[in-house]
Amino acid sequence: MTSKKKYHAYGIGAALVDTEIEVEDHELVNFGIEKGLMTLVDETRQQSLMEQLADHLTVAQRTSGGSGANSIIALSGFGGTSFYSCKVADDENGRFYLADLDAAGVHHPGDNSLPKGTTGKCLVLITPDAERTMNTYLGISETVSTANLDMEAIADSQFIYIEGYLVTSPSGREAAIKARQHAEQNGTKTALSLSDPGMVDHFREGLDAMIGDGVDLLFCNRDEAMSWTGENDIAAVVEGMKSTAATFAITLGAEGALIFDGENLHNIEPIAVTAVDTNGAGDMFAGAFLYGITQGMTFNQAGRLASTAAAAIVAQFGPRLHLDQHKGILETVLNNQ
Hints:
The protein is an alpha/beta fold. The protein has a single domain (7-14, 66-113, 142-335), classed as UDP-N-acetylmuramoyl-L-alanine:D-glutamate ligase (3-Layer(aba) Sandwich), CATH 3.40.1190. Helix content is 40%, strand content 22%. It has helices at 25-31, 43-52, 67-77, 92-103, 151-155, 170-185, 197-202, 204-211, 222-229, 234-241, 281-294, 299-314, 323-335; strands spanning 7-12, 16-22, 38-40, 58-65, 82-85, 120-126, 132-137, 157-163, 189-193, 215-221, 245-251, 257-260, 265-268. An eight-stranded mixed sheet has the order 5-1-8-9-10-11-12-13, sandwiched between helices. Helix 9 crosses helix 10 (234-241) and helix 11 runs antiparallel to helix 12 (299-314).
């Protein structure tokens, strides 16, 4: 895909400062936490969990996170141009968050007149099977709204990428809908991630509104796709997804991915690695895939890039790759075309 637009992708989503901690499965049970899902909590509950886990190993550096941000940062790491709209508060975490976006080469609205409040935080709990379970306090991110959109940047982007988690916030959902509509009016392709099985199960009506008559590209994992379509057979799932998106990618964990390019279905082979942390794997897949197709790669090529990058993520702690890893992955995939 060639374009004279300034940005390869414009993202909108939550701004969350991530902390990753290793836990045992029985501790999730003791804490009353449902494994493998994202659960919204208040600040008191999150702080209580942090205090109870104070003696546990923190396995990744504090990072600017949120699903959409992880994807946009990944695209930037491969060399893409990007813009991210979010909402942080005038506190230490908020200033850290924007500085981290700057360091990653992601454009954003700036830090002038940040509002008072608390920047969102995500406690990511990693079990020995590498599964990630998230407890999220949205903080001021819960009030992200149309006021945080940059309409000029949306119009000047090849893709807009919408984080499905926005569906939990009335103002965030409204912002997602307005962003999609503005993109459609300005020749910007639309992409959305279903984000989490819990979003599909509990916020279906809101996601339908965010998707509208359909998006150009949808990202989801197998569980989300099955819940979305109401089908259990993967062939039926694929057929069901075609009414939601012109093209889509369904990640299958250790089995790779299925990608529909609008005409043909591609089986993307998995990359064999020893998984230690699945946090950010889907986000990396989406970011790498968006990078690939905005650079003129075929869907199959972009899928192989995305699969390779996601495999690298699950083989280490934390949702981000180092810059040299991006370069090495890109060179490997390009050399093997």
